[in-house]
Amino acid sequence: MAGERGETTQLYDATLEAAWDKKGIQFATIRVERGTCVGTSEVTPSRRSHHGVELPCVLDPASDSAQIRIAGTLGMGGMGIVRLGIQTALEREVAVKTIREDADRDRADVLLLREAHITGALEHPNVVPIYTLGSDPEGRPVLVMKRIEGRSWADLLASAAPEARATEKYLREHLEILHQVARAVGFAHKKGILHRDIKPDNVMIGLFGEVYLVDWGIAVRSRDEGAAWLPLAAEVDTVEGTPGYMAPEMAAGIGSDIGERSDVYLLGATLHEVLTGAPPHAADTLLGALTSSFKSTPRIYPEAVPAPLAALCHRAMARFPGDRHESADAFRKALAELREHHVSMVLAHEAHERLERFLIAAAQGAEADDEVHALFAELRFGFQQALRAWRENLAAARGLRTALERMVEYCLDRGAVDAAATYLRELQPPAAEQKARVDAAVEQKSAEQAQLRKLEHDKNLSIGETDRRTFASLTGIAWGIACVFVGMLARGGKLSHAHLAFAALNLALVVAIAAVRLLRPDTIGATAANRRLTLLTMTAFSQQTVVWLLSMPLGMPTEATAAMHNLMGGVLWAIVAFTVDPSWLWLWLSHVMSLVTMLLAPPGYAFEILGAFGVLGTLMGNLGPRITRDALPSFLRE
Predict the structure, then answer these.
(1) Considering all CA atoms of the chain, what is the largest pairwise distance in Å, rounded to the nearest integer?
(2) Where are the domains of the chain?
(3) Contact at 8 Å (CB) between 84 and 128?
(4) Out of 35-49, 133-147, 150-164, 350-364, least confident range
(5) DSSP 634
(6) What is the pLDDT of residues 166-204, one digit of tens each?
(7) Count of C-beta atoms within a 10 Å radius of residue 475
(8) What global pTM score does this model have?
(9) Are 594 and 610 in contact (CB under 8 A)?
(10) What radius of gyration do the chain's Cα atoms show?
(11) How far apart are CA 421 and CA 48, in angstroms?
């Protein structure tokens, strides 16, 4: 059965010449008539009659009463010539088709009468209306039909620039024409008629966009019923059609396989020309074209051709009829679906162009970073818009996935872990290996950020600042008052061991600082900076305690010990200011001023001076203008 892989399918396994031998076809008998390859079937018609009906003479140049008056030539085909005629009764322009003088006249008569009968039977918007069928004075058939003001689809395709074939306008226009042609073919199939010569040359486009499928001269019946005068496809034993477009079964003359799917092949071949600008089986020789048709090797389409359209071509032009669309209507519906999603395909195609440039830029590394991000943003948006317009656009989905996977790798290579994780979330499902790599990078970054947060926290002196300032102010004032009190007692002779009193005073501060550190671990002890400051302060006062204790057995006067206290305290507070908190420069400055004052003041007032400047330094450090690290000389900053 036609369209199935039956016994005749074995012919496809042979060479074309071997297939011809089995069918009894001789290559020498196949001749080309102006682009149409025809067989050698001999049918001699009656010129003056059509199915027993006498054809009226409608074209007689010598008669003033002729129905048709020739006014010019419109065009020529393989065997016929189409002239502009005036239908005298209605005074309207018509197209008049007759046989060329140089054509095989008997065969041409058959084909013209066949076309007249078929076209007359197919009343369809995409089939040219027939007005009448008559003869000339010599009895040759004359076909009078509607005049189509326009041009052939082939001329329209030839006028398009190659770079325009991927544009939305071009595809929208020509896919609409093909859709109309497929409608006409589907209608003919329902009437049991196969066209067998579908190609852009046989499609006329009117001035207002009308689409007509013409030249039904080699049409055949698909069913063993109806008009007996029309050949049955299964009985075809010749090679007929146009070499550049023919289906394999047509090139091999396998009539048993010629059917509706043969016309589907021709629709696919026409689509191929729309997409590429040339017939699928164009060759320098007739044998080369027929061999290409017979093999029907799947084509590799340019990247500019949308993948869904390429897939439609591949199926429609499958070598075996059973692998093609089951009918012209099925082909038309598939084409309609693609036309509906044409915008999505165009968006995906433009995004694919950017994808190629993006992949090249991504391979160049950091030097093309701006271009990489710009191209990625554009192509990502393009693919997303294509998928929004048509969710099943597999080409767009694959392109977007390729871009996202490459961008994930690009971001990982440059340490942009958050961006990589964001893009990975768009991949559903993500590649397991890539997901593992991103997860590891995210975990590592989280650990690093936690460590950085801990370091920042430990350096943050604002934590516990209120408690620290309050405690420092209270202890500083109490210490200063105690110093003045000790000085007054010592100078009045009421305190014999001033060294021990001062040592006890400093030791009391060490104990107080330690107690606050233990009692307020959430503030004073919450950060490394606070803990370091606390330790340095305790160290300073512990050292002062030692100084006062050692100075007594060494016989150092209290004035000298107080001066030593100031000197060592100034050094310690300077270290604290430059390593922990610059505000402690006030204490350093107070010790310097205290030391200078002791040197200038009368003897006996060292304790009072020490206490007064201690209070001043404490108040300025905690209540005075804040000294920041930026105020330090650059060589002293960390």
Answers:
(1) 161
(2) 52-147, 153-330, 344-457, 461-636
(3) no
(4) 35-49
(5) G
(6) 788 898 899 999 999 999 999 999 999 999 999 999 999
(7) 18
(8) 0.61
(9) yes
(10) 51
(11) 83
